[in-house]
Amino acid sequence: MLLLLAILGCGEIVAAQEKAARPNILFIMSDDHAYQAISAYGSKVNQTPNIDRLAKEGMRFDRCFVTNSICGPARAVILTGKYSHLNGFTTNNNRFNGAQQTVAKLLQAGGYQTAMIGKWHLVTDPTGFDHWSVLQGQGPYYNPGMKTPAGVVKHTGYTTDIITDQALEWLEKNRDTKKPFLLMYQHKAPHRNWQPPPRYLDKYKDVKIPEPANLLDDYKGRGTPARENQMSIAKHLSPNDLKLVPQQGTNPEQRAALTKAYEEENKRFAEAKLQGDDLTRWNYQRYVKDYLRCVDAVDDNVGRVLKYLDDSGLAKNTIVIYTSDQGWYLGEHGWYDKRWMYEESFRTPLIVRWPGKIKPGSVNKDLVMNLDFPETFLEIAGLPIPADMQGCSIVPVLQGQTPDNWRKSVYYHYYEFPQPHHVHPHYGVRTEKHKLIHFYTINEWELYDLEKDPSEMQSRYMDPAYEQIVADLKRQLEELRKQYKDDGKVAEFDELTPKP
């Protein structure tokens, strides 16, 4: 019998999957992977054939957004289905309360075997997982220690490959073949400081990567926050980021290979004594090439996992989801990093393959969010969605049946300030055509017309022609803050602990 789920505010009543045929869920999440660096999204800088395969065989989402564009908080949202102020994890300085309700616990209780392998970045130990092996903190690019219930296990090699080795080992040797599974397979790459794998140290060496049109942005069209940022390619990349100093966390052989890869270019750079725009352009090429080399390693490893699913026969009944914890800047506005509600960091890639359910090669432009992921997992599994989760299952969207009353706007709230990067706290609303941002600690507002100004170069907040649009968006913003119970308070750790 089908289990019927009514999801308040998320569309019509939908039918969940029959338990007898419940699919496996493989959730692949990279860290800081810009949609601009995926060829399925039209990348002008690289090719990602294995991630592209998922798009060809599944659905690409062009309007997937995050609630809070920063690593730890994004992960907490995906586990809880709640905004940061309710799950208690607003910045990377917090500790996740593992005693609270999570999608892993709900799936585990509902008969799924659960595993978490790779980057965790929530400080406390994972809960709700039958198996876990996670990086310590951010984790290094080489020779990671992986924390497990039995202690820290030291590995030698390239972290992206090692995380995949562990995921494949679990799939092949440790999973219970009588149960469906949730595997959260999560990469450190391509997070800062972008150390490439040995096999790609020379890739792109003789290539000039195209620059974004606004690499040399002067921020004249925006307010104080954009001008005060500390994440510019011109000024804020460190010698370590740029590989101008020996790389730490490597053994002698690895360090020698890294040094050799950069030493000739570094010598020419030192002799050139570049300044101004020339220096910015050099920094951009060095930064973006290393970033893309790390992305290439992620794509390789996605290919390894897809091949295993094919060879083992698991592909037929496994939903594969590829996403990132948020978007990222590849030189747009002269930046690296994320945090802003501007499009490049607010929007994240999302590609889903579900054999027999999703039309291959389909593209979706509905407004979806990382807030929706856990509800989607639960509906896929045929399990009830708790009423206190705030997102909407995208199962009907995946099947080409977007409800008529699907959301028309998304809400965002960023907190971490002043360091790192000096991005002022802000919240805002985005609709299909416009975006209103409130930097509330300094009471500055910005409005963008996304049709006429997709790169968000000129705020129209003070333009009389947009007066009515501003009024309408402010009303929507207040409604969303009430809907998501964002009254300025953040749940404390004790408040989140379930009472006996």
From TrEMBL:
Annotated family: Belongs to the sulfatase family.
Species per Swiss-Prot/TrEMBL record: Anatilimnocola aggregata
Keywords: Coiled coil, Hydrolase
Domain N-sulphoglucosamine sulphohydrolase C-terminal: 331-483
Lineage of the species this protein comes from: Bacteria, Pseudomonadati, Planctomycetota, Planctomycetia, Pirellulales
The protein's name in its UniProt record: Arylsulfatase
Gene3D superfamilies per the UniProt record, alphabetical: Alkaline Phosphatase, subunit A
Coiled-coil positions: 463-490
Enzyme category, top tier: hydrolase
Claim: Nucleotide-binding is one of the keywords in the record: no
